[in-house]
Design brief:
The chain has about 60 residues and is mainly alpha-helical. The protein has helices spanning about 1-15, 15-25, 40-59.
C-alpha cells in the first residue's frame, strides 16, 4: 500500500528535487540511511529504476 502511495506521489509530482536527491543518495555506495536495511534500499533502487525506465519510454 505504501509503495502505491509513493508511486502515485511520484507521478503526480514528476521528478522533483526530492526524488532526484533520494535517487542520488540511494545510488551512492555505502550506508546512506542507518534506519534502512539493505533489503529496503534494494527495493527502493529497483522501484526507482523501473520508474526511470517508464519515464524514458514515455519520451
Amino acid at each position: 500500500m505504501l509503495i502505491m502511495v509513493v508511486l502515485y506521489q511520484f507521478w503526480e509530482q514528476e521528478l522533483t528535487l526530492f526524488w532526484f536527491m533520494l535517487m542520488v543518495e540511494l545510488m551512492l555506495p555505502g550506508q546512506p540511511h542507518t534506519h534502512l536495511n539493505s533489503d529496503t534500499i534494494s527495493a527502493y533502487k529497483a522501484m526507482l529504476q523501473i520508474l526511470i525506465y517508464c519515464i524514458l519510454l514515455d519520451f
